[in-house]
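PROTEIN DESIGN WORKSHEET
SECTION A - STRUCTURE
LENGTH: 245
TOKENS:
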């Protein structure tokens, strides 16, 4: 981890030297080859020629070393961008859509690469809309919507473990709203979405029989009620789109 705090003003060059980054579309010089890009970056960062060979091997760029940037596929442009971000062995790696344009094999390769970097002590900060990749890679996730951080998830709440939720359906939106109000009155958080009601509250997930009783007593009998597995994608959609069941 970076140990220097920066509060306003110019960031010290020594701190930036410990950071690698890749935006969604890497800035490349069309007429330069893959190898020339890496050699220029190595000279700029005062790195040894061995650093070029190392990153070429790591990103499997040897067969493209003589290809000019303008002739590269989108996926291989992304590989080159990652190589440029990694060649100085940064302590913090900032990535925006790192698997953009990659084929399935390339996606798996980058996933393994990022995991190995994290295992070696590199902090990887990744921004992406591919939620499936987030679940497979991240140790901690922040869900951002409309410029606001809605929630942070970590540990067992990520990946395939997901979360369980209670989902009830009703004959009308009015009954769903009435059911949500009845549960709220009993301290059980629930959200009405059109003709459905969703709750991830432990009291609802662990005792759906009690929820059914509360709903019937409130005059909002459900037509169906059950426990569903909520993965990270469903959780994201539920948080960012209140009209989605």
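SECTION B - SEQUENCE
RESIDUE ASSIGNMENT:
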């Amino acid at each position: 981890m970076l140990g220097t705090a920066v509060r306003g003003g110019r960031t010290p060059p020594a701190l930036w030297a410990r950071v690698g980054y890749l935006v969604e579309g890497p800035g490349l010089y069309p007429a330069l080859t893959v190898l020339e890009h890496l050699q220029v970056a190595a000279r700029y960062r005062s790195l040894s020629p061995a650093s070029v060979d190392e990153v070429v091997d790591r990103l499997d760029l040897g067969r493209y070393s003589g290809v000019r940037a303008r002739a590269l596929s989108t996926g291989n442009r992304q590989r080159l961008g990652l190589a440029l971000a990694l060649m100085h062995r940064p302590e913090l790696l900032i990535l925006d859509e790192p698997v953009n344009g990659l084929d399935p094999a390339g996606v798996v390769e980058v996933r393994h690469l990022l995991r190995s970097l994290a295992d070696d002590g590199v902090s990887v900060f990744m921004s992406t809309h591919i939620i499936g990749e987030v679940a497979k890679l991240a140790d901690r996730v922040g869900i951002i919507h409309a410029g606001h951080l809605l929630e942070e998830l970590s540990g067992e709440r990520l990946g395939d473990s997901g979360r369980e939720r209670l989902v009830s359906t009703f004959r009308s939106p009015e009954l769903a709203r009435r059911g949500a109000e009845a549960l709220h009155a009993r301290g059980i958080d629930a959200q009405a979405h059109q003709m459905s009601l969703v709750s991830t509250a432990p009291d609802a997930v662990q005792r759906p029989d009690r929820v059914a009783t509360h709903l019937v007593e409130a005059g909002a009998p459900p037509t169906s009620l059950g426990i569903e597995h909520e993965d990270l994608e469903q959780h994201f959609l539920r948080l960012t789109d209140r009209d989605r069941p």
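SECTION C - NOTES
Confidence is low (pLDDT under 50) at residues 1-6.
Strands lie at 19-22, 92-96, 123-127, 140-145, 148-154, 163-169, 191-193, 196-199, 224-230.
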